[in-house]
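Write out this protein's structure.
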Amino acid sequence: MTAHQPSLGMVSLGCPKNLVDSEVMLGLAAQAGYAITDTAGDADVIVVNTCGFIEAAKQESIETILEMAALKAAQPGRRLIVAGCLVERYRDELRTELPEVDAFIGTNELEQLPRLLRSPGTTIAPHPVALRPRGGIPARERTRPDADYLYSETTPRIRTTPRHYAYVKIAEGCDHPCAFCSIPQMRGNLRSRRVGSILAEVERLAAEGVREIILIGQDTTSYGEDLGLKHGLATLLRALAQVQGITWIRFLYAYPTRISDALLDVLASEPKLCRYIDMPLQHAATRMLHAMRRPGSREFMEKLIARIRERVPGVALRTTFIVGYPGETQADFDVLLDFCASQSFDWVGAFVYSDEEGTPAFDLPDKVPARTAEARRAKLMRLQARISKQRLKRFKRQVVDVLFEGPSEDSDLIWQGRLATQAPGIDGRVLITDAPADMPSPQPGDLVQVEITATHTYDLVGRIVANRTPPSA
């Protein structure tokens, strides 16, 4: 008689950084002998990897935990494990309020998962996040220097993204003192992986068929500072650009004061590097930036954007803003609107301020009413929709390189792909309606040439005219 192989299902919430943690836990579970299932409700062990960044994410995490707890209750013997950022912020409260959860794993304890799976009654002692005082913010009470977890190229990992692209986390933690942000409480200070470790991982991913690498971290542009590297991200990008089999490389989450000429020069000179910079600016009114403990001013940001566009022709700029921050006046918001209109960003995300306990902003007076903040967010996004629609018109009748991704998320009757200036999941797409009848169907990860036939607010429409990827690739 064959012994039953236990199964594990994962529900991953939050950002790509959290997704990599989920993939690592899946790899560890598989190494421990567990079968991985796509349907968490059918698994012997359910893991919910939570997000705890803002109120909406916390609420989604709690609702998901309760949903999975109900599935657990329906089948005796099933176990429920909760992991991630919410655990780092509220471990004691969660233990008290959610007795149906069998175990909790923080962001620095991922490697403890196999021990939990072997010994169901095991309790994981928390490894508090190490925090050094920065920017005048006092060190939190939860400090310990050994909270330094980083995955490496040898860490087992089961990717859940499509085969042709992968996220690679190059660092953990953040040293910036943003007044609204709880990430340092959950992730600790900056800890960079070694260049050799990242290079080995990317080489393995390329051998597995990955064509696009997306580098992530709380602040990728600070990469290597803790290792003594002067231009860490530029050095890393130049090394990764030499990896055979990789078509595109991009990085997310850049910090404005870390955009060096060395970084821009490598972005402009290496063909595999996407001319794309994701740089959250948070606001444009100088008064608001200072209240947020963010660097610079509107003038600084305008000069920075001009420098980026001059040194990297054709670059696409994505940014995010917070509206409704404590003390934000209508005049401050008008500055932000004018800034966005004048800079014509390719992609913009806007978030309503979330009041997070434990952050300096939590104690600020003059909270903006939720209805006012939401109205401002909607107005900003209406402006950006008009900008995006106008900017995309320049692609009409052009032939552009597109990374083919397969059937569209909207319909099996059309395909979709992305330009180098479009990151997966957050930007627009290229919807592909036709291809030459005598051309073999392209495969996900192929680089195809598409003639753009129509443009919309965020998406492009076109037809394939050629496949640039050799058949043997």
